[in-house]
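During the no-cost extension, the postdoctoral fellow (Dr. R.K.) reprocessed legacy sequence entries with the updated structure-token encoder. One reprocessed record is reproduced below for audit purposes.
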Amino acid sequence: MKNKIIVLAIFGIAMGFLEAAVVVYLRQLYYPEGFAFPLKQMALQELSIEYLREISTITMLVSIGILSGRNFYDRFSYFVVSFGIWDIFYYVWLKLLLDWPESLLTWDILFLVPIIWAGPVLAPLICAATMIVIGGVTLYLLKRRYPVRIMTSEALLLLTGAFVIFLAFVWNYAAIIIHGGFITEIFSLGSNPDFHREVSRYVPSSFKWTLFAFGETLFLCFLVIFVKRVRSRPRYK
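Re-encoded structure tokens follow.
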């Protein structure tokens, strides 16, 4: 397990550099003066390529988790650990390559799928650290031969926390979709010029930190309840 974690860490660091390098090139093309909101419009073909790149990134991380583990909990843990390492080092490399972000409260675009995720850099870093902790604790329990299993109530806490944090990240651009009357065209926003014009004028100014903190609290509750219950059970011999 220790060797696997070392390899996963190397993979995450290298993949973080690869992702950062792509962003360096994208910013040279679209933001030569430095990245800032509002977002600049991309051609539909380029936007589609960016969607597929993000999906491919997640697919690679899921794949490395599947290859590393022997069962669902193994694989899930390796996936979230590698995801967290990748996300943290993505920003480490951007800082080294571009001296960006200026601070942990600098806003960034996180994902484009299914809609635009945005928030201060500090927020995804907290999420990444949380993922590493949850995955690392689960792997520790597995190594100590505890009967690791997530109960339905615990899964609800975990999934609800993830959904609440997702809402915090998409809140600003979801508001554009809802208030701009684009909800009926949700599956064709990439080719909607009116939506692109709205996005190209929008500068996010506030992040739903309360919502985000609630999601993180649900994660913490899940972890405490999960660990306490699992450690109360006898270990496998």
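The longest helix spans residues 2-30. Helices lie at 2-30, 44-68, 72-98, 122-143, 152-179, 193-201, 209-231. The remaining legacy entries will be reprocessed before the final report is submitted.
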